[in-house]
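Q: Convert this sequence to structure tokens.
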Amino acid sequence: MTESPSPHFSLAIATLLGGLLLFFGVGLVVFFAKHRSIDPPAMLTAKETVAYLAHVHRSDLDRYAAWVPVLQNVPKEPGLMSVAVVRGESGPARPVAGSDGQLHWRLFEENDKGEAQNMRSDLPTQPENTIDAKDALSSLEAFQTLRGHTTHNEGWMFVDLKTLLQGSSTSLDGVLRSFLATSSYALMSASPGQFSIVVLSEGRMSEAGIDPSFPLPDSQPDTIIASAAPLAQWLAVSSMVPTQTTILLEGLWTARMHSIFGEETSVRYDLAPLLTHESTLFVRSTQSGAGLHFLLSGSADGKILSAQLSLLRRRALAMTTPVRVERRTFDRGFTSAILKSAPEGTRNVSRDRNGWHIATLSGADAIGALATAQRGREFILSNDRSWLEYYIEHETASNDATFTPPVNNHPTATLLAAGRMDGASLRSLAAAFPVVPLQSTVFPGIDHADGKFSWAVEQEGPVMRLTVAQ
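A:
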């Protein structure tokens, strides 16, 4: 008969096992405490958070510091990190100031999986890690919605734009504030050569979208502006900005149109009917560089289109200078060309080409005379007859010159408007509207931008995205 182990031996075995379990249990707790993943938005209060940056490198912080300068004070850590910019306890903050006691940073180190772990801060006293869930940034509806429109491996910044803009007095930023009636929050992402901003939107500016890639008339346009529905989109924008701003911009636009078509021309009744559907505007400088040639293509109601084009041609003709060209050849082969007034030789002529009905000025020529073309509901307007004819001649030819705006390729995205411009053209445009100077807190450096850049405005469900690429 086997003897039972003594009580002292059983107690020793139990003590040893208990000690081992306690040792491993404490070790596991310490291990997971050191390596556990934390969710920074759940530790930040929405009310005090001015900006939150996720999955960024130190070099990214330098770019985002253009909007929130206090980011320049964040330690230069290798690897990925998340950073929060929060209001301190010394009073209300102004992000443009970025002085100590107003804004502070909280740094969350990230591992290779993008999970935040350790936290540091320059706050005078370290904040509590636990807050009421309903007060957390992660519970903010705008944060949840905009966070869902990020690219997985791309760094981004969630920011309170009203706070960002409150220290700015520029006219452009004043207009931008008007777009924040739905929500003051925005999601920004910046990488070398590209910038995007996503905001919540009350509704769609237009139901239809434009093709994300379309052929160019030739390789020369300095400026391209394409819109799915110019009139509807302008009405949507004008309903958001202050009435005084709308009146001012419409007045400037009307003055420009009167300089081309005369004071009898009504923007509402003569031009607006041509801007109800998808339209594309191309602009290029004249050879001398002193003027601009434009070409506008689009579609409109076929019942009124012919009458509208005829009216605009007559109005524009009254504003042009009819001339004839006298060329002379001298004895040594030198030639000269002299422009002389020739009102008696000017007449409208029309012809058909590739299905288009083209109406131009012939006989004598006219500086800046309007040429038009119509094919069913489609139309083309240009103050450069040769450009319009070139566009029609090469419409069906194989053309490798295309323009593709910087679209996001989100599955639910609709491209509302897009364009391309260079810095010089942008400054020329700004010179035509001096009451809205090109200075902005949201778009720093726009007043001295150089080189060509393209842009796109997309609707993605409840949000709208603007992307600018250089």
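The CA atoms of residues 346 and 364 lie 5 Å apart.
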